[in-house]
């Protein structure tokens, strides 16, 4: 189960990034060019949030079956001093949860705005902040925190 969840989490990461980038691109374009908030723009907002929530569920499941997290929970005093263990046990988990909350708030606020410009602006700002957090906290192969491959297999 652990390897399957790790594989899914690795794959869905790319869907989260792609959907957020599309939504952010559409938001900035609509905001600066004073476009109409179309059904496609609303779908981009909705799907970016939905895919992010799917990743959150996979991440939470992974959190409770991961041997790294199990060690972190059972040996906190020692584990908190180990960069890789602390990163996954605290930093990655908390910051990614924060990013998902920001996406959720931004999506809800954008949905309820009255004008198209307000919808685009709200979506652009909130989603951009979330994307920045996500990009910092993904364990890229070049990350100074901890590195992982771009793609995990079974």
Characterize the quaternary organization of these chains: single chain
Count helical runs: 6
Low-confidence stretches: none
| Sequence of secondary-structure elements | HHHHHH
List the helices and strands and how they pair.
Blueprint: H1 2-32, H2 39-65, H3 67-74, H4 76-79, H5 83-112, H6 116-137
Helix pairs in contact: 1-2, 1-6, 2-5, 3-5, 5-6
General description of the model:
- The protein has 154 residues and is mostly helical.
- The chain has one domain.
- The protein is built from 6 helices and no strands.
- The chain starts with a helix and ends in a 17-residue tail after the last helix.
- 29% of the residues are buried.
- The model has no long low-confidence stretch (mean pLDDT 92).
Feature tags:
single chain, 154 residues, mainly alpha, elongated
Q: What is this structure, in a nutshell?
A:
The chain has 154 residues and is mainly alpha-helical. It contains six helices and no strands.
């Amino acid at each position: 189960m652990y390897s399957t969840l790790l594989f899914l989490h690795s794959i869905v990461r790319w869907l989260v990034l792609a959907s957020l980038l599309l939504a952010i691109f559409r938001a900035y374009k609509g905001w600066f060019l004073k476009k109409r908030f179309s059904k496609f723009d609303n779908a981009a907002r909705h799907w970016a949030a939905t895919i992010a929530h799917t990743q959150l569920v996979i991440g939470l499941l992974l959190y409770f079956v991961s041997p790294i997290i199990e060690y972190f929970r059972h040996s906190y005093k020692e584990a908190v001093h180990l960069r890789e263990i602390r990163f996954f046990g605290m930093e990655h988990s908390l910051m990614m949860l924060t990013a998902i909350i920001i996406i959720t708030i931004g999506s809800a606020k954008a949905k309820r705005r009255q004008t198209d410009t307000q919808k685009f602006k709200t979506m652009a700002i909130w989603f951009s902040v979330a994307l920045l957090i996500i990009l910092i906290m993904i364990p890229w192969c070049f990350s100074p925190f901890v590195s992982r491959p771009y793609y995990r297999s079974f």
